[in-house]
Amino acid sequence: MDKVRVGIVGTGAKGRQHMGILASFPDVELAALCDPLEKAREEKGAEFGIERRYADIPAFLDDAAEVLDAVFVATPPDLNAPSALLCLQQGLHTFMEKPPGMSAAETAGLRDAAAVAGALGMVGWNRRFHSMVREARRLVEERGPIVQLVGEFHKSLTRFEQRGLYSDQFLDNMMWESINHSVYLEGINKGVVFCDGERFELAQGSSGTEEEDRYFIDRVKDGGVIEAPACSLGEAVKPMDLGEAILAGLRV
After folding, report:
1. Contact predicate 7/34, CB 8 Å
2. Does residue 249 belong to any structural domain of this protein?
3. How many Cβ atoms are within 10 Å of 80's Cβ, its own excluded?
4. Is 183 exposed, middle or buried (0-12, 13-18, 19+ CB in 10 A)?
């Protein structure tokens, strides 16, 4: 496969970021674009030279699925799973932004749909590819296995409300957006590793988005499986199960 023909679903901030990165890859062709907002759809289609443009996913899949090798789904958070499900059911290799569902059952449904269709499914947890995270892990594991991890996570719901971009369903279930962060670092601005009596300042590097996009495209090309540091749909079910256990405990 010389060129991976990619369709983009969603032209919001993450969709635009993925388009910019994918357009820089010489072995990727942006072949189709889907967004319900005509202005955004036409502007981004023209910017990236994408002639196939659609207002809804059924039309996008009916007309463009046969020419696509993969899809990147970057819709509003509560629409990620239903949007990705339609793509997976068409047998299209699908990269989706987090969260991979608003429940463990919804995420498991994506996993099962991918297995039935024989399609790759990957969740965009880009911090797993973040240069500082990977370097910190390397320094620790050079000296032995990781046996304990302590972390804190803070996110302002007010900021999300003020942006006016998210549905009430999503805002009422912010746990599902953030539970995925419980397994890696978030908001990485600096890093320090102390070992062997020395202090190592970690250099600021990439956010990991370009690396995760490259990883997914390479797996589409070589037919490999999605595995660490990437997150497959099967692995994505685990933190969703954890989230439901946490919420169940809070209700007791």
Report:
1. yes
2. yes
3. 29
4. middle
**Whole-number pLDDT of residue 184:** 38
Q: What is the pLDDT of residue 61?
A: 97
Whole-number Å distance between alpha carbons of 39 and 95: 24
**Structural domain harbouring 177:** 75-252
pLDDT at residue number 14: 95
CB contact at 8 A, 153 and 182: yes
Backbone angles phi, psi at 153, to 5 degrees: -140, 130
78 vs 88: CA distance, rounded Å: 17
* Domain-embedded: residue 236: yes
- The angle that helices 104-117 and 80-89 make with each other, rounded to 10 degrees, is 20
Query: Cβ-count burial of 48 within 10 angstroms (0-12 exposed, 13-18 middle, 19+ buried)?
Result: middle
Tokens matching residue 157: 């719901």
**Which one, of 83, 104, 128, 41, lies nearest residue 233 by Cα?**
104
Q: What is the CATH number of the domain that holds 171?
A: 3.40.50
- In the chain, the percentage of residues whose pLDDT exceeds 90 is 60
| Per-residue confidence band for 190, with pLDDT thresholds at 50, 70 and 90 | confident
pLDDT at residue 181, as a whole number: 43
- The pLDDT assigned to 146 comes to 86
Measured between alpha carbons, how far is 234 from 70 in angstroms, rounded to an integer? 19
> In the chain, how many domains are there?
1
> 175: pLDDT confidence band, cut at 50, 70 and 90?
low
* pLDDT cut 70: percent of the chain above it: 87
- pTM value is 0.83
Q: Is residue 20 part of a domain?
A: no
**Structural domain contains residue 32:** no
